[in-house]
Design a protein that fits this description.
The protein is an alpha+beta fold. It contains 13 helices and 56 strands. A hairpin with a 4-residue loop joins strand 48 and strand 49. Keywords: Nucleotidyltransferase, Nucleus, Repeat, Transcription, Transcription regulation, Transferase, WD repeat.
Amino acid sequence: MISERRKKLQKERKKEFEKEHEGERVRVREKDRREREKEVEKERREREKEVEKDRREREKEVEKDRREREKEVEKDRREKEKEVEKDRREKEKEVEKDRREREKEVVKDRKKIENDKEREQQHGDQTVREMFVDHEDRVPVKLEENGAVGGPEPMDISTTSTSQLCGIPSSDVTILEGHTSEVCACAWSPTGSLLASGSGDSTARIWTIAEGRCKPGSENGPLNVLVLKHVRGKTNEKSKDVTTLDWNGEGTLLATGSYDGQARIWTTNGELKSTLSKHKGPIFSLKWNKKGDYLLTGSCDQTAIVWDVKAEEWKQQFEFHSGPTLDVDWRNNVSFATSSTDNMIHVCKIGETHPIKTFTGHQGEVNCVKWDPTGSLLASCSDDITAKEANKILLQGVVGVDGLSFHNLKLQGNPSLLMSTSASVPNAEFSTSAATINNTSNIVSNSDVTSSSSANLWHARHLKHNLLIQALLLLFLQPQHSESTNPSSSASESVSIPNSIPVNTHPMQTRSKSDIHNPRLHPSLFLTHSEPKTVKQALANKDWLTAMQQEYDALLKNHTWDLVSLPPNRQAIGCKWVYRVKENADGSINRFKARLVAKGFHPVHGFGFHETFSPVIKLVTIQIILTLALSYEWKLFQLDVNNAFLNGTLEETVFMIQPPGFEVADKLLVCRLNKSIYGLKQAPRQWFDRLKSTLLQFGFIGSKSDSSLFIYGHQVDVVYLLVYVDDIILTGSSATLIQQLTNRLNIAFSLKQLGHLDYFLGLKIKYLFNSAILMTQSKYICDLLHKTHVTEAHSISSPMVSNCNLSKHGADVFHDPSLYRSVVGALQYATLTRPEISFAVNKVCQFMASPLDSHWTVVKGILRYLKGTLFHGLLLQPASVKNPLAIRAFCDADCASDVDDKRSTSGTAIFLGPNLVSWWSRKQKVTARSSIEAEYRNIAQTFTELTWIYTLLTELQVSFTTPIWSMKQDTYLHDLREHSKEIYTIRWSPTGPGTNNPNHKLVLASASFDSTVKLWDVELGKLIYSLDGHRHPVYSVAFSPNGDYLVSGSLDRSMHIWSLRDGKIVKTYTGNGGIFEVCWNKEGDKIAACFANNTVCVLDFRM
């Protein structure tokens, strides 16, 4: 019993001990757990401290780098400002130096004049004798030889002869005496107070006419005249008679022509600069061109000669007339018109061996030809008692603008139409013959056009747009011949335009229909360097980490977002990092670019965005601007906007998650976007709107033809700015103005100034030695060949065989349509600089839905051709005299070349000057029922493109028109028949569009031997006034500079000044000799007249 109790007690004690021991173990384990938790917490806090410390260090480094960059930017900005200020001061110094030099020259000239006056007073009589031709050299000339009325007695300027109400008093007349024979010609210098006169005494004289009121003849001393002797010693002076003279545009040189067949050029100091000898007969007329580098002369030897004044030699002789050349007149700096006794008018161009136009409408000698102030109308007058006006549009040659010449555009292939340009603009040349892309030859024919028996005022009117449409519709409705592809059509059926374009009804071939449910994924065809796919991979590389940090800093600097809590019922869109290696044109690495992109495909229209459209510059616009820049010798600059989309302000409220790898504070916070960011659908539009508004504030004008082209005008300078998203091209007439605008843009946006245009949109710009550039895509094509594994293939000499007939029907379905589409799409971009592959690429593009193996074979052939011509490209050259800045279009179309739907293929190439600027090869949208319909459809498309180019060039301040003319209208525009005797001369008024008096209508004045002057309304071809105040033939008329008055001089010894408002005489003057020529000075306050009594009179004109 006792032992059992003892055992029981021992057992209970043991249980109690084990229970107590177990509790101790639990306490120990709990203690250990708590200690471990403390250690873990301690380690976590230490790690957090280290992470925070690292983060702060990174932020300090980033902030330090940012400050250093800002310092560098500020330093660069200050250096640029210093350079600009330095340049400004240097220019001011140069201007001040030039001003002082001019002042010194003025003082020196004033002293010289004073000394000359003193010397003249001391040696008056002796000086007078020296200024006149020696008496022993004189040959008496009878006034009757020139048909003059009156004698050599002095003019009567007494009050009795001017007692009429409109008579000019003698106090307003200066008589210039000194010539010893009749004075045949006179002309005011365009700049200054110099008057030139030419006489039958073998001399020309330069008179200095003081400003202000005229002096009587007795007060006018010989000090104010320089004698230009055309002969020395005893000889027959009549062979040296001065027949014509003309000042150059600057008024620094005077050209004279005489009976000895020589043209002479004199300085304003009376020095003979050069003698031009080539003609074999008397020179009847001569003219300077506006630029002043060429002198044009017409002679009795039936020729006209263009002289290079600088080289002092003849440049080209034009031997087209069969009779003496009576008159010449420049249209621009390189083209001109000539008239002759052979009743013909030739329009010629320097460098051409045949006339670019010939008019044969007159029935008598063509005495005079004159271009209107804008060069769009040519007037002529003849002994057949007619004055005529013809359309310049009919000229198949040169038209000039500011020294540039342009060819006309002619539509060949259908003789019922002639398409051409007008006025002072680039004309175009158009052909429907087979077009070869690299053919730049001039295809305009030089056939003469015979007009009726009236002279032509040759005019260029711009036809209304509806007239153009009617003409094109007429072409479709009335084809001249038919090669019908429809067997059911008959010759009696009228051809009409389809009411609608037929819908393509063939079933779409999708991937599933081709049993391709999981197509192979093809990487980008343009990547030659590995790029990270995840943030983790990017953070492991120092270069990509730096790029991400720079992008993140830029986002924070632009205050792109605010961290906020996501409101209820709103969703935050995602974002990701996109990595790209930016390469140079040679394939070397430019920089590593990391960009934070929003996943903008999540928002729904109307909730996350509204408007999304954003324009980009057209390639045609780029090539036109490059052509103009090369022709005008302008520099091309390139800019890049840093983080362009971040400058756009969002109109909608958009939430986005925090950037991966750069989460700040609570991860539950989201980014409420203040600025647009890459990836948002509306981001491009917001950026363009911001850029456009900024440019408009700077004074730019947006182009209506291309929304991404902006034009800035400042005085005589102009700047063109082209935008393609964030890439900008700048060019213009002033590099200083471009730099100023760039500095202003750099203040508004962060820019990279990349210097001269070098690499743009994957196009390499290579500058050549002859001021030309070569646009290539060698790197782009090389990457394409590498990705398609064609680098080892043999090259071929043609992108496509000539007899390649591809069809969509076949059993050899290509195994990977996705690859086909990606490669053909890349080839489409390659056509930007390789127009010769346009036809082949367009052909393979027609089989995107279901390509066959035969189609892929053609694609590989194009790639092999590109491999052999890797460094070929598009050549852009400046315009020249031989290859002027002209619009020329070539178009062609085949007939039913497509074997599947029998549609035709169109091809067009449009040139601006020597450069190809627009081209295409495409299948027509409808089936043409004849070859002529296919041709006309392509003509309509080409004309649409030409109209757009015309509008663009007009906005670029290259103004021109492009009407359509029937060959039946290839005659004079107006036949002006009112005179009863021969018309001796004609003159245009300085009024109308393109002149200094644009609000006045253009008027033509004709002077005749019937003693009348007729004023004509050019637009209507009707007589306005018949001015009948003279009693004898009227030899000369001249309009005042403002176009309000007309002066006429007659052999009845009277000079009348007429008001063009009412056709009445307002002033008159009568002398003692017939008047051969009258002219106004540039201010319009003085009139000069040369008389048969050996004098020149200068009259004050005041109303």
